[in-house]
């Protein structure tokens, strides 16, 4: 299942516009905060699809049952651009466990590339709800490789949610074909074009560089 969030007119579109805007991108603090706010809004939307059960709560004047999330949530992100986006999810799912994957592109002379996992810090995923977040999906290869590495080390989750701010159509299709059927993909927006160097157009540029500075 795929949910494209900017199909509805909400304040989320303001944040996406700011993340894309070259005049706003010069402020890295604001860029990171907008990534975080996108995480918070997307986490709220995902929360509507989780499992809930009545939980007794005692107030100063009595007791009542409130429907509270019963899923054990694990938040996973791909370093480094995913860190502020991940924090937004953590602000909402404050009891969630977290896991991190470091990947890199090994580029050949013909501009083809392979995604390699450099580092993974994982927890047990068996029977839990995995939410894997990355601000940008270009080809989709990083998401698929990260998911496979997480499952290989942590076991099979009960449900899978993939969250991104901007995805190319090609990347979205690639992820959809290669992840299990119980995967729900959440996109802020979907762009049509992917260049030969695998840059999403119009996209928002390199989220990691914009958040933390250009890397060598």
Give a written overview of the molecule.
The chain has 216 residues and is of the alpha/beta class. It has one domain: Rossmann fold (3-Layer(aba) Sandwich). It contains six helices and twelve strands. The strands form three sheets. Strands 1, 4, 5, 6, 7, 8, 9 and 10 form an eight-stranded mixed β-sheet that branches. Strand 2 (52-59) and strand 3 form a beta hairpin. The chain is globular. The termini are far apart. The model has no long low-confidence stretch (mean pLDDT 91).
Short structural description:
This protein is about 30% helix and about 35% strand.
Topology:
Blueprint: E1 2-4, H1 12-20, H2 28-47, E2 52-59, E3 62-69, E4 73-79, H3 82-92, E5 97-107, E6 113-121, E7 129-133, E8 136-137, H4 141-154, E9 159-168, H5 169-178, E10 183-191, E11 193-194, E12 200-201, H6 207-212
Parallel strand pairs: 1-10, 4-5, 4-7, 7-9, 8-9, 9-10
Antiparallel strand pairs: 2-3, 5-6, 11-12
- Percent helix, as a range, is 25-40%
Question: Which band does the percent of strand residues land in?
Answer: 35-45%
* Rounded radius of gyration (Å): 18 Å
Order of SSEs, N→C? EHHEEEHEEEEHEHEEEH
Main sheet characteristics: 8 strands, mixed
> What fold name stands as the CATH topology?
Rossmann fold
Structural class assignment: alpha/beta
Oligomeric composition of the shown chains:
single chain
| Highest CATH level, the class | Alpha Beta
Low-pLDDT runs of 5+ residues are none
Number of domains: 1
- What CATH architecture label applies? 3-Layer(aba) Sandwich
- The chain-level mean pLDDT equals 91
What's the number of extended β-strand segments?
12
Distance between the termini: 38 Å
Q: If helices are DSSP runs of H or I spanning 4 or more residues, what is the number of helices?
A: 6
Shape: globular
């Amino acid at each position: 299942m795929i949910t494209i969030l900017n199909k509805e007119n909400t304040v989320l579109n303001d944040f996406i516009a700011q993340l894309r805007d070259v005049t706003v991108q010069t402020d890295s603090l604001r860029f990171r905060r907008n990534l975080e706010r996108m995480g918070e809004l997307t986490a709220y939307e995902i929360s509507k699809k989780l499992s809930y059960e009545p939980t007794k709560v005692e107030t100063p004047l009595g007791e009542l049952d409130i429907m509270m999330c019963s899923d054990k949530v694990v938040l996973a992100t791909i370093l480094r651009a995913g860190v502020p986006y991940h924090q937004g999810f953590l602000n909402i799912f404050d009891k969630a466990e977290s896991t991190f994957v470091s990947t890199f592109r090994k580029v050949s002379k013909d501009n083809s590339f392979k995604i390699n996992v450099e580092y993974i810090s994982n927890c047990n995923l068996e029977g839990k709800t995995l939410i894997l977040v990355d601000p940008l999906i270009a080809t989709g290869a990083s998401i698929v490789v990260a998911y496979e590495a997480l499952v290989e080390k942590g076991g099979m989750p009960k449900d899978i949610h993939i969250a991104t701010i901007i995805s190319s159509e090609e990347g979205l299709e690639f992820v959809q074909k290669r992840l299990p059927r119980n995967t729900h993909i959440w996109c802020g927006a979907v762009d049509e074009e992917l260049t030969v160097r695998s840059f999403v157009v119009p996209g928002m540029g390199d989220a990691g560089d914009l958040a933390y500075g250009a890397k060598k």
